[in-house]
Design goal:
The protein is of the alpha+beta class and about 180 residues long. It has a single domain, classed as NADH Oxidase (3-Layer(aba) Sandwich). About 35% of the residues lie in helices and about 15% in strands. A hairpin with a 2-residue loop joins strand 3 and strand 4. The chain binds flavin mononucleotide (FMN). The site of flavin mononucleotide has 11 residues, from loops.
Length: about 180
Amino acid sequence: MELYEVLETRRSVRKYKIDEVSEDVLKKVLEAARISPSWSNLQCWRFIVVRDRAAKKKLAASMPDKNPAKKAVGDTAPVVVVLCADPKESGDQDGKDYYLLDAGLAMQQMMLAAHAEGLGTCWVAWFDEAKAREVCSVPEGYRVVGLTPLGYPEKQPSARPRKDFEEIIFDEKWGNPFK
Ligand SMILES: Cc1cc2nc3c(=O)[nH]c(=O)nc-3n(C[C@H](O)[C@H](O)[C@H](O)COP(=O)(O)O)c2cc1C
């Protein structure tokens, strides 16, 4: 799939087929995360690949019932990838903690690669961190930043709306319409 097609057609997928993800494809998409850019190239991220059914159910239990991705994590997706990062292994500038950016970029690279492979993903950040930490034995010091179900989509969800170009993109200075 061509890059712009990947960007335009990626969706948050919350319904999955039961089909397994092959080891080769899994490694390929995880590699896309590994080569992501980061603050001073410090690579503060760690990824935990969860395939054990009971562990996935426990991760889902760390999510509120209202989280629309709960069933995908606990029941339908064959894989869940848990994203962790060590704030001390990254940097900060003017109070901005770059571990979140580092970790987010790596996860997004993985998600785009996954979509190019015909797989679906969904960012999940609404969960109880302490519970997720326990399920995956994440050491103190690391934050559990997010997780995603990973598997073959049951169907392609429709596109969610976005703000208009003019509202968010300026020319030279804030507020100037981009020409
Ligand atoms: C940081 C972050 C956290 C998110 N957390 C959740 C979540 O906990 N549960 C969920 O169902 N979707 C979650 N989402 C997915 C968003 O709802 C989704 O990206 C947005 O509605 C746009 O839809 P799209 O990804 O299909 O374009 C999260 C997205 C981001 C970027």
